[in-house]
Structure formats: C-alpha cells, structure tokens
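User: Show me a protein chain along with its predicted structure.
Assistant: Here is one chain, sequence first, then structure tokens.
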Amino acid sequence: MYNDKKISVVLPAYNEEENIKKAIEDFFGIRAVDEVIVVDNNSTDNTYSIASQSRAKVIKEYKQGYGWAMRRGMYEATGDYIFTAEPDGTFRALDIFKFLVYADEFDVIFGTRTAKNLIWEGAKMTPFLRYGNVFVAKLLEYVHNGPCLTDVGCSFKFIKREAYNKIRTKLKVGGNHFSPEFMIVCLQNLKCIEIPVNYLERVGTSTITDTNWKGFKLGLRMIWLIIKRYFG
C-alpha cells in the first residue's frame, strides 16, 4: 500500500511466456504493490500456465484485442490506485514511484516513452515510431485540449479507482487503438498529466508494431479515432 491506498497493476498478456514471470516478480518487488492482475488474451503459448503459478490474479479475456484486455483488467482491479503496463520487459517497475509523486494532484497520469534520455539501448523506439507517436499525441493534445502530450501508445498509465468508475462505461474500443480513446475520455472528464518513463528492450516480439507498416496502419487508425471523437 501507499499512503493507505491499495495498489493494483494490470498486465494485458498475449503470448508473453518469455517474460511474464519476471514481470510479475518485478512489480510485486515494489512493496507498495498489493495486487498484480494478468489478463490472458487467448495466448497460444504457456503464458496462462506460467502466470497461474505465481502470486498474480490471472484472468482470461476471450474477446480478442488489447483494448478488451485492458478494460477487463481495470474492471477486475480492486486497488484504490490502478496501474497498467506491459509484461514484455519494456517498463521498469520502479517507475511506479514517479507516478505516485503526482497521485495527490491528478486523477490520471499518462507515461511517455519518447524522452530520448530514457530510451535504453535495444529498445524498439526507432525514429519512425518515436516521431510518429509524438505527432499523433500532439494531434490528440490540440484537438482535445489536453496537457503536453508526446506519446499516444504508452501503456504505462495510472488512474484512481474513483476516476475509473466515472469513465468506465464511456470506454468502447476493444482493439489496439484503445490507448488514444482512453486518453481522450480521461481528458474530457478528469485531471490528467503526462510524465516520462524508462523504455527498455522488449523480450519477445510485438504483434502490434513489429514492422513499420503495422505501426503506420495503427497510427492512421488512431488519427481517425482522434478526429472522429472530436466531431462526436
């Protein structure tokens, strides 16, 4: 717990057998963390069985998609403070304390992976992905009157339980473009800020941005959502 607040960490997982055990251990290694929830999204490897042998609460989400897994995980979380992250080794569990510094002042805190001095050697943040993320984030910032935003795809985020309860029914996206929808809904209803987090080399292969073409198509889908939500 942190200042008498229970902390939950949500890890959406699809074929993450290579690092799921370490991810769970890393987050439980933070003494303030009370609960780790792994949402297995129809993995075809040993993700579910490995996670089930740990202290984590493991849930199966049969609706395929990153958004479905994230929404299910936040719904199942019992903490006063809810964190979301990836279990692929790209994030440092210790960065939780960066978020907690701002927890008294803000309802929602978005992480950003685009700060140059926090991108580790080997991390998959090519200039194409970095500038693409910044461009889409800036579009979201200006169209939806947000704070300074530099990353629309970072899954390392924080939201208070009472804040989540206010927006839960407003979340509709089940696919990989869930992140900008979540950000837009939060900006429209809650007090938000963005902070930089460490971004490390991934363990395993991403099914979302393993090629620039996939990243480009996802970016276009995010742009369409951002513009569409502006017009209602």
